[in-house]
Amino acid sequence: MYGEPATNPLRFEILGVVRAFRGGRQLDLGPAKQRAVLAVLLLNPGRPVPTHRIVDAVWGDEPPENGPNVVQKYVAGLRRVLDPDRSPRTPGEMLALTDGGYVLRAASLDAEDFRNGLARADAERRAGRLEEAARLARTALELWNGEALGGLTGPLFDSARTRLVEERASAWEMWAEIELSRGGFAGLVSELSRLVQEFPLREGLRAQLMIALHRSGRQAEALAVFRDAREYLLDELGVEPGERLQETHRQILRNEPPAPPTAVHTPAAVHIPAPRPPADPMPAAVQPYSPAPPPHALMPGLPFAPRRHGISWAEVILAAVLPLATCSMGSWFYFAYAAFQRRTIRDVLVAVGYFFAVIGVLVFLVIDPSDPNSELASDAETIGFLLGLGLIALAAFHGAFLAVFPGDSRRARRQRDMARMYATFHPDAARQAGIGRPDLMRSFDDGGLVDLNHAPAQEIARLHGINPIEAHRIAVDRYERGPYRAPDDLVVRGLLRPKTLQRLEPWLICVPPAMPARADAPGPDPV
Known about the structure:
This is DNA-binding SARP family transcriptional activator. GO terms for molecular function: DNA binding. By secondary structure, the chain is mainly alpha-helical. It folds into four domains: about 10-110, Arc Repressor Mutant, subunit A; about 110-255, Tetratricopeptide repeat domain (Serine Threonine Protein Phosphatase 5, Tetratricopeptide repeat, Alpha Horseshoe); about 285-305 and about 410-510, no CATH class; about 315-405. Helices cover about 50% and strands about 5% of the residues. It contains 20 helices and seven strands. It has helices spanning about 30-40, 50-60, 65-80, 110-125, 130-140, 155-180, 190-200, 205-215, 220-235, 245-255, 315-325, 335-340, 345-365, 375-405, 410-425, 425-435, 455-460, 470-480, 490, 500-505; strands at about 10-15, 20, 25, 95-100, 100-105, 450, 510. The strands form three sheets. A three-stranded antiparallel sheet has the order 1-2-3, with no helix packed on it. Strands 4-5 form a two-stranded antiparallel ribbon.
């Protein structure tokens, strides 16, 4: 295919370390950056990828000065590996340069085979051929060879990896559902126990494990699975188990045969357009801001720590008093703590600067005043004392300022990661709770996330680097062209520059909107 002999087709893998094979023989893809360029193209098979997006994905905050030329060099290296029979002066067919960027026409990709295999398994399941459905699902799952996109780091790869892991977890749920329908209860227990450890947030897997145990005559162990799930969710996330787990628990307590939880499976190979919101005279995205939250926004027991209201005066006092209490020798302690929390180069350099300032004070204080060989001996103690006083004043003021304006922190990053994970597995609950909605009165902290699909334009404009006009365009565009699937859509739609998005992406989330109710859906039963 694409110039290769039919007996030696190319095959690419991203469900593990990025690899390429020709006729069963693994190809040498070259240096790590070259493999990363290939991974970006494999995540967009058959679609052109602009050069600037490749640079942002592969190099992140440290792009090379001649980024397009470097990308061109790596693409040329990939062409030599993937299409060795092509003349260097002949335009590439498999890896081509178009007006929109570089496009890779992958002959075979394991991620697409995985999705197509699941679609066929789901079709067999719906047709009642459960044995064939289970075989196809298990065959698709065996395509995984480790962590997806193994060894690649960066927002684009992390986001793609999260989506692929979610697809894998859903595939395991479908496989377990098929096996439960076939009646293989005892043999499922060990496999489901392993899967619960691997995907602890998937309540469907926990419910399926409870069903398998109950139908194997192990009711006490099934109830213990629910207790463990409840303890884990409360300890890690601060939430009670969802309705699926609770209903399974109630059925087991009543000694009723619980039905296998029905997993919703949307084959990724089939494109389902994003729902458009109903027509309004003025879309909710651009309506005037109202500080009063809707009733569903107040949702207790959320998976996040309480919001930090106001200033932590204990931390401010500690930062201000510490230099004085340690006679300037501990002036760098709080700044080291701040650098550990914020993880920025600037804060690390500040902590290092204060540390060496303390060393400088010590140098002057340890000079022997009676040393005749030292010109500073007579004034060393005075200089050291004055430097120490100045360092105390500066460190106390600077430390108190940092405590009043904490900025980003390790805790905030952890809260954002937990919020994103929660929204990935429970989008409806995340939407009702108001994750990414700083305009709502909430009792939890999501680390400062802003939901591009639901936050009003006023909140988007609060993001550093986005002016009110750009925020208004973002809010209008999501109404006119559909919701955002990922923050990258802001660049794809021409709403933000790549550099701006790269700086803001840690604070952005795209919670999917609710599906509109069907007009022919049955209404509530009459009273």
